[in-house]
Amino acid sequence: MGHDTLANHIRSNFNLIHHHKWSLGEINEMLPWEKHVYVELLNTYLKEQEDLARQRENDHKSMMNQLNRRRM
């Protein structure tokens, strides 16, 4: 689950609280497997958003390259 150390457990809780606005109470009330599922879903979502942003950036660069070639 990524909580192989106390430091990783605390880091994971901090990220959920600070970046995703979950409360410590909400996190502590979860069963360990439930927290694991939510963290995995969140990781998947963030990776998908990263991939979409990268694809948009590549599409933009490609479009700009095509425009620059036409101007020459």
Order of helices and strands: HHH
Instruction: Let me know the largest β-sheet.
Output: none
Low-confidence stretches: none
User: Could you give the count of β-strands?
Assistant: 0
What is the residue-averaged pLDDT? 90
What does this structure look like?
The longest helix is centred in the last third of the chain and has 40 residues. The chain is built from 3 helices and no strands. The mean pLDDT is 90. The protein is mainly α.
Notable features of this structure?
72 residues, 85% helix, mainly alpha, rod-shaped
SSE topology sketch:
Elements (H helix, E strand, L loop, with lengths): L5 H15 L3 H6 L2 H40 L1
Summarize the structure.
The chain is mainly alpha-helical and 72 residues long.
